[in-house]
Amino acid sequence: MAQILAVDYGKARCGLAVTDDFQIIASGLQTVETKNIFDFLSKYFTENEVESMVVGLPTDLKGNLNEIEIHILKFIEKFRLQFPEISVHRFDERFTSKMASFAISQSGKSKKKREEKGLIDKISATIILQNFLEQKQK
Predict the structure, then answer these.
(1) pLDDT digit string (tens) for 10-57?
(2) Cα dist. 10→32, 64, 82, 133, 137 in Å?
(3) Domains by residue range for the chain, with CATH
(4) Distance between CA 49 and CA 12 in Å, rounded?
(5) Section 95-124 average pLDDT
(6) Is 8 helix (H, G, I), strand (E, B) or coil?
(7) What is the pTM of this model?
(8) Are 17 and 126 in contact (CB under 8 A)?
(9) Which residues contact 90 (CB under 8 A, 6 or more apart)?
């Protein structure tokens, strides 16, 4: 088997998470500036076997797509052209930022660390990926 990579896409930065090679556990990987995401992914894919990618689907409580979706679709289009061998899945990311903030606050981190947006993005990607794995097992 190979890893699954998750992306919590944002205009400024992207939170990334990956599974182990057996696709059992999701772990936070890194936060990367969006302008550098393709350079990071190219390097990561040469060093690791990744079979698919999960990208958060930004919806509100009513199921309407957030405005960032336009940017996400452009990202996915470019990704598919650059990495056609890696399949792309979408997964609802509702409440992941709030869940990530809560998890950080419960971890005993300092207030400064809790407010670090990069950490929130990375943990959000981890939550998206873990939820995706759980759904996949059903």
Answers:
(1) 999 999 999 999 999 999 999 999 999 999 999 999 999 999 999 998
(2) 10, 17, 19, 22, 28
(3) 3-137 (3.30.420.140)
(4) 27
(5) 61
(6) strand
(7) 0.83
(8) yes
(9) 54, 55, 56, 57
